[in-house]
Write a structure and sequence with these properties.
two-stranded antiparallel ribbon; single chain; alpha+beta; 7 helices; 5-stranded antiparallel sheet; PLipase_B-like; about 15% strand; globular; 7 strands; about 240 residues; Penicillin V Acylase, Chain A
Amino acid sequence: VDAHGLEDKYWRLVGNLLAQLRGLSDGYSSARSQEGEPSLSEIELLMLTMVDTDMDAVVVAAYTHGRLVNEHFKHPNKTTGVDEEDNGESTTGGGVAVSELYANPYRSRRHHGHCSALIQLAPNLADLWVTHATWDSYRAMLRMVKYLDMPLPGVAARRMVFTANPSNLYSADDFYELDTGLTVLETSITNYNSSLWAEIKPQTLMTWVRAMVANRLARTGEEWTEIQDRHKSGTCNNQWMVVD
């Protein structure tokens, strides 16, 4: 962001999102310190922010180093150590190696399936219906509709409405209504080819950042797609639908 400066509105908006993330971290840590509880660093809050989207990036790092994603992914027939079925990859506490997790379509759908979307013409072409449903575990029921009104310089969209978790800076569902007249939604595409993770490089922007920048700058579906495609990370791959 610093390398591009404030003259580039794309990177200015990226910097704005990072500043908001820093504000969340500062606010949370300030409140926790008064209670004598642990604070959260910016990187820790960023990891929490990516739980429902770009955690694929964490999977990449784990796979590269032969480690678990986390200990919540358990194999029903394994309890400890390394198993021949895991091709020698390290597991702990009965967990599943990353390559196995993503090679098994059922397990991948079970842990990463997240939403459904529908775009349909009304009878007699009277209207166009756009709807989105997020399905998740009970822990994810704490959700809200956010309304942002931010008169940022150089943007097309000042106001947007989206569904999200309370601390998120974006909609992880994703479902956005913008005052440019765009409706933006997506459903995620799971990567079943673990060899593709080797193609991911760190010199990119996470999907949620690119989507929010595209929301601010685009006036048409074509513009949104072009902007969101810049600096793509290869994580949280989605089928995006933009109604303009």
